[in-house]
């Protein structure tokens, strides 16, 4: 599978990872009733709570309940309100690990990654200090996972690798720690170590598509096509209505060629059926059909791929081949000219040319 598709899936998996972090990872869940399911927290009530926090008017139990309210806001994707509440809680108790963790999580999800970095570091430090004293290694691992994710998004791969490694060492049975460490290793180019981390994550949560996808990607990049194919097939079986497993196995089977290529074409067609607007599946299927003398079938997929990524020359190049094999010389020449103009625009920095409708 191409790096572009892997990055696309990775970004979606990152969002899922953050939303699946424990809703209240620092103990507030036990003493705080959750809001009624489906009952939104009123904005005015949140604002009043923030004011009470700022006045220092909360006792210990109320502080714990405010932490739970903040996590409920995060779960409801009300990140700005959650960040405001957690910021107030941190001002009152600057070393409270639960408040720091919530502030980092909400601030990051609010799109303020730079501000989340120091909060995540403080949350990790506080959790590590308390974890050593009370045997709460999992809480410390959760904080380190969050720190690793924030650092990775900020482009600090080394910092993400260090934080995730500490998290995995502290809590080897923590799924998020193993998955995040694998992703950090993958980003660092250590595919074999990444594969081991992804296997560990997959064993902790069988059927979850994320470690299977990244395992397959790591093995494929490491040159282990057989292992990658097995992982892609397992992903397709676990998530038959998601396109990634079908796309990955299809692309790999087509690349291997021989008798397996036709199975690969069918898998790619299934990926397109599931996600008609998936560029990678469209262009890969179109390319495979052209290579197998099925140019007429390829045109539809390549035209759609060109519409999805107008600045990419690949679908236009494949269209030029398809049209030439179909005897449609003028259209083939037009696509070849478009490929040339796209390459020229890339060199000059100009916007890519648009094909004529």
CATH superfamily heading of the domain at 1-178: Tetratricopeptide repeat domain
Report helical residue fraction. over 70%
Termini gap: 30 Å
Report the oligomer.
single chain
Query: Total helix count?
Result: 18
Helix-strand blueprint:
Elements lengths: L2 H18 L22 H12 L5 H16 L3 H14 L4 H13 L3 H22 L2 H17 L3 H14 L4 H13 L3 H14 L4 H13 L3 H14 L4 H14 L4 H14 L4 H13 L3 H14 L4 H13 L3 H20 L9
Helix pairs in contact: 2-4, 3-4, 3-5, 4-5, 5-6, 5-7, 6-7, 7-8, 7-9, 8-9, 9-10, 9-11, 10-11, 11-12, 11-13, 12-13, 13-14, 13-15, 14-15, 15-16, 15-17, 16-17, 17-18
In short:
The chain has helices at 3-20, 43-54, 60-75, 79-92, 97-109, 113-134, 137-153, 157-170, 175-187, 191-204, 209-221, 225-238, 243-256, 261-274, 279-291, 295-308, 313-325, 329-348. It is mostly helical and 357 residues long.
Characterise this structure.
- By secondary structure, the chain is mainly alpha-helical.
- The protein has a domain at 1-178: Alpha Horseshoe (Serine Threonine Protein Phosphatase 5, Tetratricopeptide repeat), CATH 1.25.40.10.
- The protein contains 18 helices and no strands.
- The protein has helices at 3-20, 43-54, 60-75, 79-92, 97-109, 113-134, 137-153, 157-170, 175-187, 191-204, 209-221, 225-238, 243-256, 261-274, 279-291, 295-308, 313-325, 329-348.
- The relative contact order is 0.06.
